[in-house]
Design goal:
Length: about 525
């Protein structure tokens, strides 16, 4: 018999309160009113001093609370804008390593998904290995063979994991609301929004069909990149809870001795890693956001093979331009330009003291760039930069936090492969070429054209929005202007916006003379009509 949901949730909250109280965070639980008498008694008996190794205690507490909390801790490890650096570094040690699901449950998930037996005459597979080759909190991977002889890897979601995660997410939302309520001095941390971002990410990991779509897109993106590939997705054997891909054979990219023994050129692999990162970030604006070494292999032909696309990051063109400009400024040790880039991108408030911000960037960057070439870390630079967000009210950029996590892995891989090479020096010519193309005169013209098209589209939709607003007011019985005045107002606004957009376009293109005069007259006429109809 299943216990009522509310009772099970209260039991879970009691366990959370107990773990917090027994890991040096009793004061936190007391202030959040989590089973106050019980936690207060534990606090009284154990004392209320914060442990010296708070980060380690938080890590241990999250590990005891299970998969959802472990993944939440892994996400928090990138948020040095929220956590002290020592705590964030400790959370990076969290391991998503759990015992495998019993095979009887794996079989049930697959057979219920496809309404067919797992093996046998009418089965999906000719053979299916019962012992998984990898197991994590959300899914595990088994090797299998299709009826046509193809060897495949089958990723199967854990039975009932969706229900467990949804229950834990509801508890995390409650804890975030309590934290926001009882710690008003930390509302700048936006705890409910952090949980909301995390919920979107982990729910995305639950949908293996979505992961298959990510893999398919990456395969297309890398089609023109030499030496990089993605295993083929077998869509007929893929479902929300099951993902089947071609089976790959390779060596994990962080095992340098095995790679050298197999005859691979590690410096060439390092160069390919640099090209891979550059292509994902700058060309596609779409990157693998869970690139730990266990997800990167080198096959017999020396190609880098990526797997596990549950988490992806996206960068719009504006962010890519900012990132390229910032990277080049730092690589040239031009800290004033780097400060200007942040201001131009709108990542710091307009009233920021640019000189003080330049000094802050210099303070964190100089120690990093004073090292030997192989030890220079742009990922560490970004990590330190995020740590000054509170001081300069820098707006948090979730996509850059995901990118920083990817940078850490890429840098680590590059150092393992060729300790004297630096991935950013290898990628610098590619980034410089991209900047010349996208931030030179042609790129700026294209950016302006895109912005004008977007604004013009918005203005073209204005009459429809005004009509909807008027219809709503009429339904509510509000006083309205006569129909002819409304039509005049709408026509005036449309002409004014169209004329201003046309004028801006002509100015950007360097056009002068009659056309600009006509555009100005259209804008002025629209303004007059709008006034008449107002």
């Amino acid at each position: 018999m299943r216990l009522p949901v509310s009772f099970r949730r209260n039991l879970r909250l009691l366990r959370i309160a107990h773990i917090l109280a027994t890991h040096g965070m009793a004061a936190l639980a007391v202030r959040m009113r989590l089973f106050y008498p019980y936690v207060w008694l534990l606090q009284l008996l154990r004392g209320d001093e914060l442990p010296k190794d708070l980060g380690a205690q938080i890590r241990l507490a999250l590990e005891k609370l299970g998969p959802t909390f472990i993944k939440f801790g892994q996400m928090l490890s990138t948020r040095v804008d929220l956590l002290p650096m020592d705590v964030a570094l400790e959370l990076k040690k969290l391991q998503d390593d759990v015992p495998p699901e019993p095979f009887v449950r794996v079989r049930r998930v697959i057979e219920e998904s496809f309404k067919r037996p797992l093996t046998g005459e009418d089965g999906l597979f000719a053979a299916f290995e019962e012992v998984p080759v990898a197991a994590a909190s959300i899914a595990q991977v088994h090797f299998a063979e299709l009826k046509d002889g193809r060897r495949v890897a089958v990723k199967v979601r854990r039975d009932h994991i969706s229900r467990t995660i949804e229950s834990d997410l509801a508890i995390l939302e409650l804890l975030a609301a309590l934290f926001d309520r009882y710690f008003p001095e930390y509302r700048r941390l936006k705890a409910p929004q952090v949980i909301e971002e995390f919920s979107v990410t982990i729910r995305g990991e639950l949908n293996l069909r979505a992961e298959a779509a990510h893999a398919s897109r990456f395969a297309g993106n890398f089609a023109s990149v030499e030496g990089v590939r993605v295993p083929e997705v077998l869509w007929d054997y893929t479902h929300t809870e099951v993902l089947t891909t071609e089976r790959i054979s390779g060596i994990p990219i962080d095992e340098k001795a095995r790679l050298e023994a197999a005859g691979h050129d590690c410096l060439k692999l390092c160069e390919r890693a640099a090209t891979l990162f550059f292509h994902m970030v700058f060309i596609d604006g779409y990157f693998h956001a869970d690139m730990h070494p266990g997800n990167i292999f080198v096959d017999e032909a020396g190609e880098i093979v990526l797997i596990d696309f549950g988490i992806v990051g996206r960068l719009d063109m504006k962010t890519r331009r900012y990132l390229a400009d910032m990277l080049l400024a730092f690589l040239k040790e031009d800290y004033h330009r780097s400060a200007e880039v942040h201001l131009e991108a709108g990542f710091v408030p307009p009233d920021t003291d640019i000189s003080a911000f330049e000094d802050a960037l210099r303070e964190i960057a100089v120690p990093i760039f004073n090292r030997s070439l192989g030890d220079i870390s742009i990922a560490e630079l970004l990590l330190s930069m995020f740590a000054v967000t509170e001081r300069f009210k820098m707006e948090t950029q979730p996509q850059l936090l995901l990118l920083q996590k990817t940078m850490v892995v890429i840098e680590g891989v590059a150092r393992e492969l060729a300790d004297q090479a630096n991935i950013w020096v290898l990628a610098r010519p590619l980034i410089s070429e991209w900047v010349t193309r996208h931030m030179g005169p042609l790129g700026k013209t294209e950016a302006l054209a895109s912005e004008l098209r977007s604004q013009l589209l918005g203005w073209m939709q204005l009459p429809a929005r005004i009509d909807r607003t008027i219809a709503r007011l009429e339904a509510e019985g509000g006083p309205l202007a006569p129909e002819t005045s409304r039509t005049t107002l709408i026509a005036g606004l449309l002409l004014m916006s169209g004329g201003s957009a046309w004028l801006a376009w002509l100015a950007a293109a360097g056009t002068a003379g009659g056309l600009m005069l006509v555009a100005g007259m259209v804008m002025a006429g629209g303004f007059a009509l709008a006034l008449a109809g107002a």
